[in-house]
Amino acid sequence: MTIYALSTGPGISGVAIIRISGPQSSKVIKKLTDNELPLPRVATLRKINNVNTSELIDEAIILWFPGPESYTGEDMAEIHVHGGKAVIRAVQDEISKVENCRLAEPGEFTKLAFQNGKINLLKAESIADLISAETEIQRLQAVKIMKGKSSEKFNKLREKLLKILSFIEAKIDFPEEDLPENNLNKIKRDSSDVLEKINKILNDQKVGEIIREGFKIAIVGPTNAGKSSLLNNLSNREVAIVSETAGTTRDVIEVHLNLDGYPVIISDTAGIRDSKDEIEKKGIKLSLKKAENADLKLVVVDAKSADFSGFLNDLLKKDAILVINKSDLLKDKLDPEVSKFNHVLISLKNNLNIDKLISKIKNNLEKKFISEEDILITRERHRQHLLHCVEHLKNFLDKNDKKDFDKGAEDLRLATRELGMIVGKVDTEEILGSIFNDFCIGK
Fold first, then answer.
1. Which residues of the chain are in CATH 3.30.1360.120 domains?
2. What's residue 94's pLDDT?
3. Buried residues in 335-360 as b, exposed as e (16+ CB within 10 A)
4. What does the pLDDT look like over 386-414, one tens digit per residue?
5. Paired sense of beta strands 56-65 and 76-83, if any
6. What is the C-alpha separation between 144 and 141, in angstroms, rounded?
7. 211-368 maps to which CATH number?
8. Contact yes or no for 378/129 (Cβ under 8 A)
9. Are the beta carbons of 2 and 100 closer than 8 angstroms?
């Protein structure tokens, strides 16, 4: 089957690229242009015509990539047409008239590249991340994975386990022969080394996933402290309703921001107080859950009525900045308890010290991302495979009796399989759908 799709963004543009891949690609180009194929990888101007009537649709640049030297590994072509919706639709309609041609599914071109051995699974994921990157730090992380640093590391660990497995399978095949003591020691030593390296990779504070998904900041605190006003100020737009009526915010409002190149998701939450309103109580429950799962909490309080006992004290214990709002109304000195906490005194009404708050947030972000150079895990999928690998390696190392070699071999096979599933070196059909469905159509 031959697939085709618009590979550039939808909407009106100067140029739109329609990509085609599969055995019928050459036939499609010949029919549309009523001409021979252009030279491989040479941009060639051709008229695009209606297949049945030869009526001119557009003049386009054709690029021809014969397989296997193409992105997908198959015969592939790109048609660069003018980016009007009617032009794109007309060209795609003509392609659909060619036998065995259909619209591509999301990520199908990259899925073909993986299945044809052009890229591994990590590179496929990094391509999706590069397309989705909204900040510089996300782009840099995606490029690092594309370069193959992660793949190289995981493949080396996998090869080491395969070597250990070969020693053990040799013993299973020839049970009458004893393995030399130094070989047994090497097996234990090498498998312990792999286990140690994987544990080190896992001990990364989940920075890779945070960069990819966004640094989670929860704005929490009592009612009428200025949480929604703070969200609007940081977002530079009205995203939350601001009212003097307590309990206005009942659900969680999320905003994605680019804060000096760092991807940030800021959540405004319901004010925390004792309430008999069932809907508000659910909102408060959501607030506390958001605070628990956040990478950083902005605990907003009213300068005149801040009480640092109870829930406020609990919220400020870890990964939190105390934001004391309405400083313009403050006449007396602040509660001495404030000095115990990482805090900033602001006035949203007078736009006072907002820059200091943003500076504190940035400092927190920089500390969190300081070790990004060593990040190898960027998705929960990678982490889960490594955790399962650790579990199987521990099971293997717990077997000290030589009679347990057959059981130990199975533990190592499972550990090797988990590493292989990260880069796609084993049958991974069950996970391919979830990975490539995240791609846009045309990639």
1. 2-104
2. 95
3. eeebeebebbbbbbeeeebbeebeeb
4. 999 999 999 998 876 656 666 778 899 89
5. antiparallel
6. 5
7. 3.40.50.300
8. yes
9. yes
Q: Considering the chain, tell me which residue range(s) the CATH 3.40.50.300 domain(s) occupy.
A: 211-368
Query: Parallel, antiparallel, or unpaired: how do β-strands 13-21 and 2-6 relate?
Result: antiparallel
45 HSE (CA, 13 A, CB side): 2
pLDDT in tens, 25-64: 999 999 999 999 999 999 999 999 998 898 999 999 999 9
Measured between alpha carbons, how far is 419 from 388 in angstroms, rounded to an integer?
9
Distance of CA 214 to the CA centre of its chain: 9
**Edge-to-edge strand list for the sheet holding 262-268:** 253-259, 262-268, 215-220, 296-302, 320-325, 343-345
Q: Which helix (H) or strand (E) holds 17?
A: strand 13-21
DSSP bridge partners of 365: none
How many angstroms separate the CA atoms of 148 and 212, rounded?
A: 17
Tell me the two tokens of residue 252. Answer: 């969680």
pLDDT at position 430: 46
Is the CB of residue 311 less than 8 Å from the CB of residue 273? no
Burial of 430 (0-12, 13-18, 19+ CB in 10 A): exposed
Classify domain 148-204+378-422 at the CATH superfamily level.
Answer: tRNA modification GTPase MnmE domain 2 (1.20.120.430)
- Contact by Cβ (8 Å): 391, 195: no
Q: Give this prediction's pTM.
A: 0.79
DSSP-based three-state secondary structure for 341: coil
Q: How far is CA 236 from CA 233, 275, 303, in A?
A: 5, 31, 23
Cα-based torsion angle of the residue sequence 112, 116, 118, 121 in order, rounded to the nearest 10 degrees: 70
Q: Which fold would CATH assign to domain 2-104? A: Gyrase A; domain 2 (3.30.1360)
Sequence-distant (6+) residues with CB within 8 A of 243 are none
Residues of the chain with CATH 1.20.120.430: 148-204+378-422
> What is the average per-residue pLDDT within 374-390?
91
Pair of tokens at residue 311: 């829930």
